[in-house]
């Protein structure tokens, strides 16, 4: 793995001028949020939605890039993730009965979010799935959107259909909130799992650094219920891609051909079914976390996103 330049203070400290607080969903659930206003007159605002198991601290480096370019940045930990409270007694297991609760949380947050226009939404992995649902179903109205390695489908050697049936059977036979697998022990297993995310070892160490200091924010394997919900959400999203009306906004979809966590072929089909989506593919050797990859990959991803942001800001003027 190639290390990024270290030390890199912005990745391991909360930025000056930013705040961390809690927003409460309509049912009262506390959602940990991050806000970093632009200095001076903002060009607009970004809402960043992370993936399964993410905490927003993972993405401070990207947030700093956009904030210095004049954008206010907001992010939050999903229900059941990070500092937003867990949904099972075993807090290390990531559980959901349905992605509907996440879509509802996003729609409610978007309504309550007081931020300078234009407002752009970005979703990584699971966050991309939820964001795409919210956009195509009309639950949120954004000036632009970015889907980063979106979890249209989970990558599975058995295929989505068989894998979903297995997950549903496991939910019926015992507690759906139990872990779907046990994390493999050993340095080799850990290195292989991390290689799925990024080839940049320095950025991987940043995530460990945050977890060591805030162990309560770490999330382990998903539950069988989460897996069943994720496959069902993917099926519903593919149906929406074919049936939902055209969106009056520009949408970028960035995907790595060798992504080992999401099915990039499904993401490409999703993009091709939608006239408003522009697909950008990343070649062999690129991992799942495009904004935390080695600098040449990360810089290309940021430059692609910046062009969208520039266009959105120019149209709003």
UniProtKB/TrEMBL annotation:
- Keywords (A to Z) from UniProt: Hydrolase
Q: Where is the Serine aminopeptidase S33 domain?
A: 41-295
Task: Write down what this protein is called.
Answer: Alpha/beta hydrolase
PANTHER family the record matches: PHOSPHOLIPASE-RELATED (PTHR11614)
Q: Provide the GO MF annotations for this entry.
A: hydrolase activity
UniProt xrefs under InterPro entries: AB_hydrolase_fold, Hydrolase_4, MAG_DAG_Lipase
Q: Which organism is it from?
A: Sphingomonas liriopis
Pfam families assigned to the protein according to its UniProt record, in alphabetical order:
Hydrolase_4 (PF12146)
